[in-house]
Structure formats: structure tokens, C-alpha cells
Amino acid sequence: YSCAMFLSEWYCKKSILALVDGQSWDMYKPLTKSCEIQFLTFKDRDPGEVNKAYWQSCAMMMGCVIERAFKDEYLVSLVRAPEVPVIAGAFCYDVVLDKRLDEWMPTKENLRSFTKDANTLIYKDLPFETLEVDAKVALEIFQYNRCKVDLIEEKASQNPERIVKLHRFGDFIDVTEGPLIPRTSICSQFEVSAVHNLQATRSSLIRRFQGLSLPVHLRAHFTIWTKLLERSRKLMKVHLPSSFLKSGPPMGTSKPHTNCSVTPPGWH
Asked: Cα separation of 266 and 104, whole Å?
């Protein structure tokens, strides 16, 4: 980002990712050596990497919203944000909610509440930060979420230094390789559009939360947005990992909830 500042305001506002010696790079990730840099935008001839980063970033924001939306007595376990191509029509986050919520299905008002919380994150204009940490640190952060623990162990085993890449905006941290967009305010239109029940494991019901968003650079007319929303509500058919289906995660979240925007029917 600092390099973009030396070029022009256009590069600062429009750049979503950088290519550093041909490798996709977060805009706020520090450079470690002399290198060749190319800036990527949504208007490039091939915006594939930018679109992928945008989708992953939106999924992470939705995960934050879900984790913090329910009252403190309900446990929320974020499982993973499955990789879904932009052309599929929706980004996703798989979640296990407290067993007391197994019969709960979100109303339109609940979905609007999730969406409102997401728009609050957008308004705050929070930067996405890359954190490369020792696996021990990552395991401590996510010690109450077995799915994240398993993912951290898997990623740590892939390099001798056992370094794991996390991303953070505000005080929310997730396990994701990235790269991600520079700031939450890159998002413009954003809606949590659907929640689907997936198959149950031995002990848990898995929910797939889905959403749709367009960046500030590519806003859509209301009519087009409505059609895109309708498409985003269809179940995204991405398979769950076999390791998860065998056992399922223990209920729990890595940090306390900080707000209570959703009250499921029957609980007060």
C-alpha cells in the first residue's frame, strides 16, 4: 500500500491486491526484500485473483457476524469458509450452532439483522492484516474450536518452521491463507441471504450461511441486485471434509461474543 501511495491516489483507491515477483500479495503485508510489484484491480482483463480475494474476505466478514450475533449463552463454532468460485453466486461459511438451536431457522428479520451487522463492519473501514505466527500461538487462539485446531495442525505440518498464516480485522481473527482485500470498506452492497441445513454428524447439525456482495467499484442496479440475490439463496453444493463428517467439532468459540443481535424464537 505504501508503494501505491508513491504512484498516485488512483492506485491507492483502486488496488485490491499486488503481485510481488509474480506471487499474490495482501496490500498491507510488509515487503521483505527488493522485488517487482504489479497492482491488481477489479477492472483488470483477468480479475480472477482479485475476485477470489474479495469472496474470501466477504466470507470472513460473514463469519465474524455469525460468531457474534447470538446471545452469550449460545455456543457458536465456525467450521470453515469453503472455497466457492465467484461465478457460483454466493460465498459461504459453515457453522455449528448450539444444540438448543437445532430447530431454529432464521426469519427474514434475522437475515436483515446479520446484514446490518455486516454493514457496520463495512462502515468501520477496518484494514485486513496478515499475521504469520508460530503454530503454538495459533493453537492457543483457537483452542476451543477443534476444526480450526485441525486446520492449523495441517497447515503447520506443511512447513518446517510450523508457521501458520492468519488474517485479522478489528479484533476478529480467522485461519485463512488469503490474500484478502485491503479494507472492509471495499465492500458496498452486502447481504446475508440464506442459511441451509447440511447433513448432521454424530453430534452436530452443520449450517451453511450464504451471502452476496459487490465491491464499491462495481455496484449493481436494484433490479440486477435482486436477481443476483435470488440466485445466491440456492444451496452452494460444496462437500464437507470427510474428517469432519466422521466426528464433528466440539461446540465452542475462540472468544466471547460482544453483541446480541439475533434472538432465536423461544429463547429470551
From this structure: 9
Q: Which of 5, 3, 35 is nearest to 21 (CA)?
A: 35
Residue of 95, 106, 89, 58 whose CA lies nearest to 235 = 89
Domains, the chain: 47-244 (3.30.980.10)
Q: pTM score, two decimals?
A: 0.88
Residue 258 CB contacts under 8 Å (≥ 6 apart), including other chains: 68
Q: CA-CA distance, 147 to 225, in Å (whole number)?
A: 34
| Tens digits of residue pLDDT in 16-55 | 999 999 899 899 888 888 888 899 999 999 999 999 999 9
